[in-house]
Design goal:
This protein folds into 2 domains: about 130 residues, Rossmann fold; about 210 residues, Dihydrodipicolinate Reductase, domain 2, CATH 3.30.360. Helix 1 crosses helix 9. It contains 10 helices and 17 strands. It has a 9-stranded mixed beta sheet with strand order 16-15-14-13-7-12-11-8-17. Strands 3-2-1-4-5-6 form a 6-stranded parallel beta sheet, sandwiched between helices. It has a two-stranded antiparallel ribbon with strand order 9-10. By secondary structure, the chain is α/β, with parallel strands linked by helices. About 45% of the residues are buried. The structure holds nicotinamide-adenine-dinucleotide. One of its GO terms (molecular function) is oxidoreductase activity. InterPro entries: Gfo/Idh/MocA-like_OxRdtase_N, Gfo/Idh/MocA_oxidrdct_glycsds, GFO_IDH_MocA-like_dom, NAD(P)-bd_dom_sf. Pfam families: GFO_IDH_MocA (PF01408), GFO_IDH_MocA_C3 (PF22725).
Length: about 375
């Protein structure tokens, strides 16, 4: 099995998730290659010790990402930094010729995403993907396969949601994800939008227009000193898009909520059709529900316990449960498989084009929510 030298830029919450997934690569079976983290970069030097303590392969620690990019041992980079830094650092990574799995939203706003996209032309040999791990849950894969099989018939409605609840506490301290100048004006949509757009876009469900209801509930939050400071970002967004035209048109509902009472990290997808329907939620991680309907027949939902039927085979017995850290590892398996010449078993990570399309949707949604009107989605040609 080939080792692929990886560098991590941004050693916070998500950098550690990748490091953990790579450290238990033996969990996966029949992989073509394995990631070896050889270099890490963060402007906060204290964060990098955790990596060198746990990963003997880390030979470079730097506070300057250009130093990491000059390292010949680094073939591919995972970048997980605050949104305002995506355009600058992703552009440097792409220009360096190294492969990139970049975190969403892949540019803080549409303009910054366009700057990244402009650099990708003519770089066919360089693999660039955008992080989005929730569709790698077995139940999500079942819903995707069900839709791809044509079982839905005429589509009635599609809904994809990502719900968090911790922001319901107005005393939760502010962090960069609640600051417009660091997270972007999309607010919760920039944070969670790629998660809800990934599967609809992959299945070809591109809304041509949207209406968004944006909710702002918590106006101030405590900072590190305890003083209350403005919290400007949108808390919740409910976007209703229209896919298709005429009699075949259907609503695509996308929910990105940071204030969803009782929800910790719930990602769900539900597809409703005239002949078949299916749904999956991470609240019931081992199950998916589906219905096949024949005209005049009974309408019976079936529930199947899937256990651990992952896209990339793993050592875990099929009776056991799949969770968030497994979804992260499966996403990494898809990226590494592509790097090693595979087809990611038919479900590759989100592409730069899909990230750009999600920016088109979010940009229209932001305009719609601010002005309370339906806005056409303008996709790049
Ligand atoms: N896929 C997911 O489920 C998921 C979940 C959370 C966050 N994210 C995304 O991951 C990215 C990072 O989020 P996070 O939660 O890990 O944030 P975080 O704040 O925990 O980590 C970001 C890190 O970037 C570092 N950093 C800042 N400037 C830097 C620079 N110039 N060079 C190198 N490092 C620098 C910070 O010091 C920090 O350690 C964001 O794009 C976010 O949207 C994805």
């Amino acid at each position: 099995m080939r080792n692929i030298g990886f560098g991590i830029i941004g050693c916070g919450l998500m950098g550690r998730e990748f490091a953990s997934a790579s450290a238990r690569w033996m969990h996966l079976q029949d992989m073509r290659a394995r990631p070896e983290i050889v270099a890490v970069c963060d402007t906060n030097p204290a964060l990098m010790d955790w990596y060198s303590d746990h990963l003997p392969s880390v030979r470079q620690k730097t506070t300057d990402h250009t130093t990491l990019l000059a390292n010949d041992e680094v073939e591919a980079v995972y970048c997980a930094v605050p949104h305002m830094l995506h355009a600058g650092i992703y552009s440097d990574i792409i220009a360096s010729g190294k492969h990139l799995l970049g975190e969403k939203p892949f540019g803080m706003d549409r303009g910054q995403n366009a700057a990244i996209m402009a650099l990708l032309h003519g770089r066919e040999g360089q693999l660039v993907r955008c992080s989005s791990e929730m569709p790698f849950y077995p139940g999500a894969q079942k819903v995707i396969d069900f839709a791809r099989s044509g079982a839905l018939g005429e589509i009635i409605e599609v809904e994809c949601a990502f719900l968090h609840s911790s922001d319901i506490n107005p005393d939760k301290p502010i962090n960069w994800k609640r600051m417009v100048d660091v997270n972007g004006a999309y607010g919760c949509m920039g944070d969670l939008g790629m998660h809800v757009c990934h599967v609809p876009l992959r299945l070809g469900w591109k809304p041509h227009s949207v209406h968004a209801s944006l909710v702002k509930r918590v106006a101030t939050r405590p900072d590190a000193s305890g003083a209350r400071v403005p919290c400007e970002t949108w808390d919740n967004a409910t976007i209703t898009g229209t896919v298709g035209t005429g009699a075949a048109a259907f609503p695509l509902v996308l929910k990105t909520w940071r204030i969803a009472p009782g929800e910790s990290n719930t990602w769900s997808i539900r597809v409703l059709g005239m002949e078949g329907s299916a749904e999956f939620t991470t609240k019931s991680p081992r199950q998916w529900r589906f219905m096949r309907y024949a005209r005049g027949g009974a309408q019976c939902w079936q529930v199947e316990d899937l256990g651990y039927q992952s896209l990339f085979p793993a050592i875990t017995g099929g009776i056991f449960e799949f969770g968030f850290t497994d979804a992260i590892q499966q996403m990494w398996a898809a990226f590494v498989d592509e790097l090693a010449g595979g087809d990611a078993r038919g479900f590759h990570c989100a592409t730069p084009d899909e990230a750009a399309e999600h920016h088109a949707i979010l940009t229209a949604a932001l305009e719609s929510g601010r002005e309370n009107r339906v806005v056409d989605v303008e996709y790049a040609r």
